[in-house]
């Protein structure tokens, strides 16, 4: 397994006596569900670009507390792309892949901005909440 992926997902993995890294399927599923929930919230808020951007920066700041670095973000795209392909099948066209890739690039940029903000301010404290849909309080 890639050294960078081990570092990125070390909280979701266990090490066997042989030294091999294996994913803890319960933790991995919980994290994947959370990621997809937040991705859905992000898509729900695409119309409000300033709110969408603020959410992503805040999420980047939160991930900085877990020592996630901006250079790790490109490793996530293949997993997201493959998940979309698996879920959508033939409906996942090249055009759709390109659109999702553009969205992912924007998300990565804003997450990296949040990580940089957190690291430059010396704040490595995790925030309490996750993303909140702007209409959650209505």
Q: Main traits of this protein?
A:
mainly alpha, Globin-like, 5 helices
Could you outline the blueprint of secondary structure elements for this entry?
Elements: H1 3-8, E1 13-15, E2 21-23, H2 25-44, H3 49-64, H4 77-88, H5 94-120
Antiparallel strand pairs: 1-2
Helix pairs in contact: 3-5
Task: Describe the protein in words.
It is a single chain. The protein has 138 residues and is mainly α. It has a single domain (3-120), classed as Globins (Globin-like, Orthogonal Bundle). 59% of the residues lie in helices and 4% in strands. The protein contains five helices and two strands; from the N terminus they run H-E-E-H-H-H-H. It has helices at residues 3-8, 25-44, 49-64, 77-88, 94-120; strands spanning 13-15, 21-23. The chain has a two-stranded antiparallel sheet. Strand 1 and strand 2 (21-23) form a beta hairpin. Helix 3 (49-64) packs across helix 5. GO terms for molecular function: heme binding; metal ion binding; oxygen binding; oxygen carrier activity. InterPro entries: Globin (IPR000971), Globin-like_OT (IPR050532), Globin-like_sf (IPR009050), Globin/Proto (IPR012292), Mb-like_M (IPR044399).
């Amino acid at each position: 397994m890639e050294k960078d992926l081990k570092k990125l997902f070390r909280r979701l993995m266990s090490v066997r006596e042989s030294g091999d890294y294996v994913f803890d399927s319960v933790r991995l599923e919980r994290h994947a569900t959370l990621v997809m929930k937040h991705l859905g919230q992000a898509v729900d808020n695409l119309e409000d670009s300033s709110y969408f951007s603020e959410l992503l920066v805040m999420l980047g700041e939160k991930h900085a507390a877990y020592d996630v670095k901006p250079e790790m973000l490109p490793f996530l795209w293949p997993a997201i792309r493959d998940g979309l392909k698996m879920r959508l099948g033939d409906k996942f066209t090249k055009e759709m892949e390109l659109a999702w890739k553009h969205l992912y690039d924007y998300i990565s940029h804003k997450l990296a901005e949040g990580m940089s903000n957190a690291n430059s301010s010396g704040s490595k404290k995790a925030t309490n909440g996750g993303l909140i849909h702007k209409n959650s309080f209505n």
